[in-house]
Amino acid sequence: MTAPTTPRLPAGVALGGAVLVGVLTALQARINGQLGLRIGDGLVAAVISFGSGLLVLAVVSALLPTGRRGFGALVAGIRARTIPWWMLAGGLAGALTVATQGLAVAVIGVSLFTVGVVAGQTLNGLVLDRVGYGPAGVVAVTMPRIAGGALALIAVGISLQGGVVERVPLWMLVLPFLAGVGIAWQQATNGRLRQRVGTPLTATFVNFFGGTVVLAIAAIVHVAVVGAPRALPTEAWLYLGGVVGVIYIFLSAALVAHTGVLLLGLGVVVGQLATAFALDAVWPADAGPGWRTELLMVVVAASSVIVALAPWRRQRH
């Protein structure tokens, strides 16, 4: 069965959507990081975030006709084996991302978390586009795309100036990089699943269901070893991470077919870094690199997207 062709969005609209995904990603990172700090357990905070998102998606999917149709297509595809198991595994990368937010963001700040994600996203986005893993098919690795990726990595290098490496545990820098690698793969995987089921709503639901299961198991083991977390805070905004995640994963699954994996990732980078700069300016973390360094990061990352826009009218091989 051939998936229906998706009408192509204008380049500016698709890129604007990618930037919005980045804004929401940075907001979620700050929310989940603060919740993890307040209760003293990043894994439990991640379960709360993902679990609340799953609840929202379950209700919306049951109420909307498109959600019911998508779920029916999902079940039929699994039974007919036209939807392979790996298309259902995007939630693993989402679980890693949210867990990393809860464990590290309150310490290193949104900006340092974001630049680690940028590095992983950029490198893996190039690879996935070149091998044709994403729903847009094979996207040529042209010199502007390579230059855009290189500029994004330069932004990462800038963020590590001023003794950041000495102030921050190595694992807190490595985990965001691995999360970025996973995010690029997750966006491509969710985009392909979206093509099979006909709606990003169902692809997002699958992502949250798998991520919640993985995080719940990890949190149960962690609590059994170290004990229960502190009492839950009462501020309502600390529990909005799941809803924010629903929105940006839904948008990612819908947009990746219009942008390719790398360009989606670069648009997300600009939104992430700009929002991270604003958040850390008004709410700085102890290990942050400072506002001047963060501003330079944002400028360089924005330049990476402008450069990478050159191959928008891509060729397929």
Walk me through what this model shows.
This protein is mainly alpha-helical. 77% of the residues lie in helices and 0% in strands.
| Chain-averaged pLDDT | 82
Share of β-strand residues: under 5%
**Total number of helices:** 11
Count the strands? Answer: 0
Question: Which ranges are low-confidence, i.e. pLDDT below 50, for 5 or more consecutive residues?
Answer: 312-317
Taken from the alpha-carbon principal axes, the silhouette is globular
Distance between the termini: 22 Å
Main sheet makeup: none
**Which structural category fits the helices and strands?**
mainly alpha
Provide the helix percentage.
over 70%
Radius of gyration over all CA atoms, rounded: 19 Å
Q: H/E series, N to C? A: HHHHHHHHHHH
Question: Key features?
Answer:
single chain, 317 residues, mainly alpha, 11 helices, 77% helix, 0% strand, globular, disordered C terminus
How is the secondary structure organized here?
Blueprint: H1 11-39, H2 42-63, H3 65-80, H4 90-131, H5 143-159, H6 164-167, H7 170-197, H8 200-226, H9 241-259, H10 261-282, H11 291-308
